Automatic annotation (TrEMBL):
Keywords: Methyltransferase, RNA-binding, Transferase. It holds the Pfam family UPF0020. InterPro entries: RlmKL-like_Mtase, RlmKL-like_Mtase_CS, RlmL_1st, SAM-dependent_MTases_sf, THUMP_dom. This is RNA methyltransferase. Residues 1-118 are annotated as: Disordered. GO terms for molecular function: RNA binding; rRNA (guanine-N2-)-methyltransferase activity; rRNA (guanine-N7-)-methyltransferase activity. It comes from Pollutimonas subterranea. It comes from the Bacteria. SMART domains: THUMP. Residues 169-280 form the THUMP domain.
């Protein structure tokens, strides 16, 4: 069992105050500051380890140093020698190795499938353009996270961010990003006016580097203002181009599997261009591998991590969610505070590609595991009125490899829930207005606000809601409001600072 109040294992630099008087720049820094800080902490630990000699045999590809391209791997990550699993550092609740979904045996079995070919190893210095999509509203926070992971040229893009990196950087982005939904490698781009141009683009792309007939394939298509008549037909043109090329070169074509494909390709169309992306993530990155119990209207894990980043939560401080549902915000918070990489327990699409170097990947993961802190520095506490939601949260906690004491989940009413510490962060996703009858709704907000004003002085409060009038119902004026999308739902993250006399206004 973990005693959440003991131990001083996590040291974070104090949040830097943005200089400058540009309000937009200031907002950007604030939006991404916490994500940057958390990712920087991970990177510092990684850099410290890179001072030790590389134990890998010289026959393995060696890390590049100082490419000066901002690829995120210039530090030359140095993996720790692999320990037997029983000796590896564990975080609370990690004791059952067979629960690991991403078993090496399964991968080895896959690679020894008849017909499996190994592509030439991807040259360590080869740089790829990368696009990482994210929930809308988290772009700046994602850029900050990617820059902190070492992808220095990361810039915001529509619902995502772009940067350049080598293959190791692509593995690291998948492993560490808490905010990205996928890591897509741009493999082809060209002007298109007709569906046949898409076929030609797919025919000219060297897919055989990544996959062949021994893999199954899925293609997805999305578009903005594309004049093409049928996106389904465009999708088919990509599949035809890929399959024709592979059949011509290797004698066989991959079969299509839309449910559990080995390789995924995304086509993105604009008014006059097409981009083909190789998806290195497989399943969306918000699927960390721990959620089975969904509860009522759960947040996606990367949105929960994004909200924590925008709230400015300092992971060494107390965290509360008084409407915790299945516990998404708090479980993400515990992983952040302990330094558990978001993708440590899940499989990735790149593991099924021809160029996959399983040994290098194991080294990266072992090294990431070795930096997980054994315990939290401050309490993390959740309440929900619904006992079945608390049961769901506890099951999710267990699946997230955390011991029961890591997060205190209790049945309780937000209107009377006591603060978990003298100060801290309350980050929550309360029930949406339409789920509550209006009188109950007004009563709930008034009584909850009263509890906050009376008992939560020195707490930072961040609330995500699709109800734009929520601050009015709470009779609190937000210091900041961040536009965010929860799926298709237009939301705001409202931030308040409670002070002894009530709350701080703008
Ligand atoms: C939108 S859901 C939260 C979902 C959660 N973020 C997740 O990812 O699972 C809102 C939760 O508030 C709970 N709730 C409603 N009224 C409450 C109250 N007065 N006190 C505590 N919880 C309450 C509901 O039972 C529901 O689980």
């Amino acid at each position: 069992m973990t005693d959440a109040k003991t131990g001083k294992t996590l040291t974070l630099k104090k949040k830097t105050v943005a200089a400058g008087d540009n309000p937009e720049g200031e907002r950007r820094k604030r939006a991404g500051g916490r994500a940057r800080q958390v990712a920087q902490l991970d990177r510092q630990r990684e850099q410290q380890r890179s001072m030790t000699p590389d134990p890998r045999p010289s026959s393995l590809p060696q890390p590049t140093t100082g490419t000066g391209t901002g690829t995120g791997t210039g530090t030359g990550t140095t993996p720790a020698p692999r320990k037997p699993s029983a000796e590896r550092n564990r975080y609370p609740g990690e004791p059952i190795p067979e629960r690991q979904p991403n078993s090496y045996a399964e991968q080895d079995a896959f690679r020894s499938k008849p017909g499996a070919r190994r592509a030439a190893a991807t040259p360590r210095a080869e740089i790829f353009p990368v696009f990482t999509p994210c929930p809308q509203g988290l772009e700046d926070a994602l850029v900050a996270e990617m820059q902190a992971l070492g992808f220095d040229d990361a810039v915001p893009a529509r619902a995502g961010c772009r940067f350049h990196t080598d293959w190791t950087g692509i593995l690291r982005a998948n492993l560490y990003s808490r905010l990205a939904t996928r890591v897509l490698v741009e493999v082809a781009y060209g002007p298109v006016q007709h569906e046949d141009d898409i076929l030609d683009l797919a025919l000219d792309t060297p897919w055989e580097r990544w996959f062949g007939a021994e893999q199954t394939l899925r293609v997805d298509t999305s578009a903005i203002r594309s004049p093409m008549q049928s996106l389904q037909y465009c999708n088919l043109r990509v599949k035809d181009g890929i399959c024709d090329r592979l059949r011509d070169r290797e004698g066989e074509r991959p079969s299509i599997d839309t449910v559990r494909p080995d390789a995924r390709v995304h086509l993105f169309l604009t008014e006059d261009s097409a981009t083909l992306y190789l998806d290195t993530s497989g399943e969306s990155l918000f699927k960390r591998g721990w959620r089975m119990e969904k509860g009522e209207a759960p947040l996606r894990e990367n949105l929960a991590a994004g909200i924590l980043a925008l709230s400015g939560w300092d992971p060494s401080q107390a965290l509360m969610d008084p409407f915790c549902g299945s516990g998404t915000i708090l479980i993400e918070g515990a992983w952040i505070a302990l330094g558990v990489p978001a993708g440590i327990w899940r499989p990735f699409g790149f593991e099924r590609l021809r160029n996959h170097d399983a040994r290098h990947w194991r080294d990266l993961k072992d090294e990431a595991r070795s930096r997980i802190a054994p315990r939290l520095e401050s309490p993390i506490v959740g309440y929900d009125l619904d006992p079945s939601a608390i049961e769901a949260a506890k099951s999710n906690l267990d699946r997230a490899w955390l011991t029961p004491g890591t997060i205190r989940f209790e049945v309780g009413d937000a209107r009377s829930a006591p603060p978990a510490a003298d100060s801290g962060w309350l980050v929550t996703n309360p029930p949406y207005g339409e789920r509550l009858p209006s009188e109950q709704d007004t009563g709930l907000w008034r009584e909850w606000a009263q509890n906050l004003k009376q008992n939560y002085s020195d707490w930072n409060v961040s609330i995500i809601s699709s109800d734009m009038d929520l601050p009015k119902a709470l009779r609190l004026k937000p210091l900041r409001r961040y536009p965010l999308y929860n799926g298709a739902l237009d939301c705001r993250l409202f931030s308040f600072e409670m002070v002894a006399a009530g709350y701080r206004q703008k």
